[in-house]
Amino acid sequence: MTTIATAWETVVGLEVHTELRTLTKLFCGCRNEFGSEPNTNVCATCMGLPGSLPVLNRYAVELAIRIGSALRCSVVPSIFHRKNYFYPDMPKDYQISQYDQPINVDGSLELPDGTHVGIVRAHIEEDTGKTTHAGATGRIHGADHSLVDYNRAGVPLVEIVSAPDIRSAEQAKTYVSELRAILVATGASDGKMEEGSLRIDANVSVRRAGSSELGTRCEIKNMNSLRSLVRAIDYEAARQIALVESGERVVQETRHWDEGEGRTHSMRSKEEAYDYRYFPEPDLVPLEPTDEWISEVVASLPALPAARRAALAGVAGVRPADVAVAVQKELDGLLLATIEAGADPRVALTHAEHNVDIAQPLDPVTFARVVTMQVEGALTATQAKVVLAEVQATGAAPDDIAKAHGFESMDDDALASVVDEVIAANPDAWAKFVAGDAKVTGFFVGQVMRATQNKADGSAVTALLRLRAAE
Amino acid sequence: MTGASEIAGEVRSGSRRARDVVEEHLARIAGRESELHAFLTVMGDEARAAADAVDRVVASGGDPGPLAGVPVALKDNMCTRGVPTTCASRILEGWRPPYDATVVTRLRAAGAIVIGKTNLDEFAMGSSTENSAFGPTRNPHDRTRVPGGSSGGSAAAVAAGLVPVGLGSDTGGSIRQPAALCGVVGVKPTYGAVSRYGLIAFASSLDQIGPLASSVGDAAALLEAIGGHDPLDSTSIDAPAPQVTGGLNDGVEGLRVGIVRELMHEIDADVVARVEIAARALEKEGASVDEVSVPAAVHGLSAYYLIAPAEASSNLARYDGVRYGLRVDGEDITEMYNETRAEGFGPEVKRRIMLGTYALSAGYYDAYYGQAQRVRTLIIRDFDAAYADHDLLLAPTAPTTAFALGAKTDNPLTMYLSDVCTIPSNLAGHPAISVPYGTGDDGLPVGVQLLAPALGEPVMFRAAAALERSLT
What is the pLDDT of residues A229-281, one digit of tens each? Predict the structure, then answer.
């Protein structure tokens, strides 16, 4: 069966909604704030009271332009539409959203491995309120009663729609991580999935490897973390492959991801899809940012993750993908300075990824000294990690910390005698090692480390053990 | 009966107390209300308190505003803080807005006294005020006749002298048509000249608030008080209110006026006659008058009855029983929606919601809503061509004088035809004014309509004032 499974290709397009970090809502002056008491950040406009009118938030438009520019979109004249449907958490029973003339079109996002994912559009719209249904199902039908909090109604969103250029669940996760980093870097979003600042829908289809036609897609909703995104796409692709292989057809529909059950459920088919009766919003005028404004916004953009990866990779002499974690942890500035101070780039990079506490300050010259001590053999990798932690915690000099711990490299004869003592003390284990049981290697290394108070170099110990076994 | 300008003059000079003005008008309302039913709410206590405040400003030597002490009736689709605002619909019965419409704020700032909320066709949908959920208003000239609509309450209140001035809203003729049928002045300003903030929407791209008054001068004063840019309305024009009072006596010498050929068809002969007499009067004052064609105007009614219901179907979605107004409980949310809207809306509102929903539906949008918007573009183009060599256009306001109550309620299409002459201005976003100009064969008032290009109010008011003078 595995040979058949590998003959399929998964095709994914993502729709990512991000709440914008504005002070106020999209069309009124109410605070845009997560976690307030229910229905305290509301007014006539965001409650949709009769006679109220929307006024567009200029800063929300600026953030949308930042997002579009960061995603290499064209920023174009746009208009707002009304998307009509009845739901109690939508005060006007229509959502003001951009439809066929969005503000940002035709961009792309570069993943750390150099893959480009097309961006079809990134448009502005308003968020809905939040409904809590009391009752058995947790859904609106069959609920005893429902409670609605309108604090979120009218909060500005940008929806970023990718092309169907994503080819696996893992790549989808990488795309969202990269997009989140861009949104945070531009100041447009706080990127918090757990607070709903970032919400993802996935369009998933499958096709035979080598085919250039797209299969029938399903839209998957309700994925609340990167983990559930990966699980849901994997599940859905497998479901579709199984359907097609058993001679059935995939039906175009919207499906709901159930995190607990680990599967998707049908919500509504294409035939049941709402007719949203879109038409141009007559209460707003066309949005036509001037070239000057767009240029100002573009000029104010900070360096974006892809450019930062390229810069660090160039200096470190590695591939951009190799510095993805360091850039994600916002350590590229520190690393550039540390390399500038003379540190070995690869060793510095390894420590930055695993051993540097991003919450603590670290002076690049000090960091470079720790790296150099390790490269010169004065510290083992393990000791360097300990020294680094103490440098960050206490601010003491690396050499003083190393001396205080008695960290100095053991000479080979001293290490050999310790290894021999440990072998002699554990004849049964040694017999297994000699017989080729690799599992006891860790035991012997640990014993030697204990006997030397961690001064030994783990790889040197292993080499010595192999040497003795061969004798 | 004294006009707004006289009242304001007397109150400002201290020769008459605003409180006395208000008491006098409240008494008039009390005397005629049971026979006319022009009002849905009379704001006696609020009006007295506001009048006392004006009097205190006058007493302390301050400026009480250009409309000091002038009682104003508001069509009951404009929000008044803490005072019921119903749109003459059961669905909003009991709802009290937490805020004032911008026009209300501006009236109060000008010293005017909001004295009550007037009757209308439910959600401003109608031409006779018979579609009110709270019963029809009657024409003060003949109580067996309608006052027109949808601003029939305000028009009747002004015509009966219950108030010197009122505000209406005009989506397809809802100020001008009742003004004509009641024999008062009614103005539909340029779209965006008056803020819509706090006006409960019928069709957002067409709705515009404007004055009803017993004289052109009072209408002009009211427009200056309520007009001008409002940051709360994104479609508001970024300019001060049209300045229309200063030129009222400037005459029409040299103005080029065109009678719109397409709007003279299927109009009662006695109404056509009054338009022609008005044309002669303007010529006598020095204007040149000829006939002009606005070909696309004949499609105005059809386009209007797609665009206005389409927008209404969306604007009225919010009356769902969830947050305010009427709620009729059901087994689940869908049943609650259905029961609430079935009971809360009257038949004409339901008809238009269904029309509009259909016109916007997938597969029909382009043939209906899209096509209607193209007609709108053509109408603007044809008006532009007419205004290339004309300053103003002249037409009837309504095809007939006031008709009998019940005469057109059985056939909506005949009712819709009442607005055939007024709708093109709404579609174009242009201003127009209806001036009472004598009576028809039945002795009831006839209105003639002056149309102007966008922001053409100053010239339009000059000509309207000239027409008014020509009658005396």
Answer: 999 999 999 999 999 999 999 999 999 999 999 999 998 777 677 899 999 99
Cα–Cα separations (whole angstroms), residue B453 to A107, A427, B423, B435: 43, 106, 14, 18
Catalytic annotation, pick one of B5, B132, B150, B195: B150
Structure-block tokens of residue B176: 């001008």
Q: What is the set of domains in chain A, with CATH numbers?
A: 2-299 (no CATH), 305-405 (no CATH), 412-470 (1.10.10)
pTM: 0.90
Contacts of B334 in chain A (CB under 8 A): 141
Give residue A2's pLDDT band: very low, low, confident or very high (50, 70, 90).
very low
Q: Residues of B at the A interface (Cβ-Cβ below 8 Å)? A: 77-79, 85, 87, 92, 95, 97-99, 101, 196-201, 203-205, 231-235, 310-311, 313-314, 317-318, 320, 322-324, 332-334, 337, 357, 360-362, 365, 369
Told to judge if B60 belongs to the known catalytic residues of this protein, a careful annotator would answer: no
Judging contacts by C-beta atoms under 8 Å, the chain A residues touching residue B311 are 279, 282
Query: Does the distance separating the beta carbons of A93 and B318 come in below 8 Å?
Result: yes
ipTM above 0.90, yes or no: yes
What integer pLDDT is reported at residue A118 of this predicted model?
Answer: 98
What is the fold, at CATH topology level, of the domain defined by B4-226?
Amidase signature (AS) enzymes (3.90.1300)
pLDDT tier, B1 (very low <50, low <70, confident <90, very high otherwise)? low
Angle between helices B347-359 and B300-315 (to 10 degrees): 100
Using a CB-CB cut-off of 8 Å, the residues of chain A touching B306 are none
Query: Which of A45, A53, A99, A283 is the best substitution to test chain B (most B C-beta atoms within 10 A)?
Result: A53
Mean pLDDT for the stretch of residues B61-90: 98
